[in-house]
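Lab manual, section 2.4: Encoding a predicted structure.

Procedure: take the sequence of the chain (321 residues), apply the prediction step described in section 2.3, and record the output as structure tokens. A sample record is shown.
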Amino acid sequence: MAKLTIGSPTGRGLNSVQAFLRLVLWLVSMAVFVSITLVLAGILSRVAEFLGPATLAVGGFVSLILAIMVSRTIYVIPEYQRVVLLRLGKFIGVKGPGLFWVIPYPPFFRSVAAILDIRVQTRIIKAAETLTSDNVPVGCEAVVFMRVEDPERAALHVENYSEAVFQAANSALKDTVGNLELTELLSEREKVADRLQSIIDSAATRFGIDVSSVEITDVRVPPDLIQELSVIAQSRRAAQAKIAEADAEKAIAERLQEASEMLSGRAMDMYRLNVLERLGREEGSQIVVYGMGGSDPHLETTIAASAAGAMIGKGQAPEAG
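Recorded output:
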């Protein structure tokens, strides 16, 4: 079915069901009018012989015109369309979907102002080379999703609702970009899109249009600025990594401080010996410890003597400690 534009006359974009019903109605009307013409021609031919052929010629032409006029009064509108009706130029209502009649002849004088598509439509809006609040030239592109909510307003209060919404959305996009910094525009797209949707919807409501959502699809930044932003982002990541490392070292130091406060003197000695034991499990390793302290003042002397005796038994001279 051909697409109908705002204010398009009737008879365009007919669907197959409507076309079939109009054909059937035309055939029936044609048969009725031709039958009436034949009857009139027979009656008038008795009055005067020349009136018979003249009645057939005139009646045939009139029957054709009347059949076409009658067939064009029937409408079948699909679920996704609405018809705005007028009577003598004044709004009388919205019709559809389904089957109905629009009779433009006396005494009804109805006419179709527009056939509107109420499905969701999309329009792409662009803001090329718009300065952000921090004076960065960017190009921004967004998609507006909208649908006709009030057919009367969309058909009678604005000449072209799609173009009106497009212009309002384009202006709102430029104003929004101009009030944001580049970092906000790049990192908070959802918030920017929600703000745009609210602004555009408030303007589109006057035209009978509901803007369901706005999505930012592209933000174009100058290439040299992209390189600078990359360097800045890399520096920030390096700084954050160093901060995280320092925080981890601080946490470890705090835990060690807590552990040292919990351990007594003898517990610390046992902990040191446990560590030395794990180190001494390696093959060929020998550990001599001086100055461990502790509660036994002769502990260092005893350990050193034991180590020296073990070395003499192996034929090695002990080194001076």
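Check your result against the sample. Residues 1-13 have pLDDT under 50 and may be disordered.
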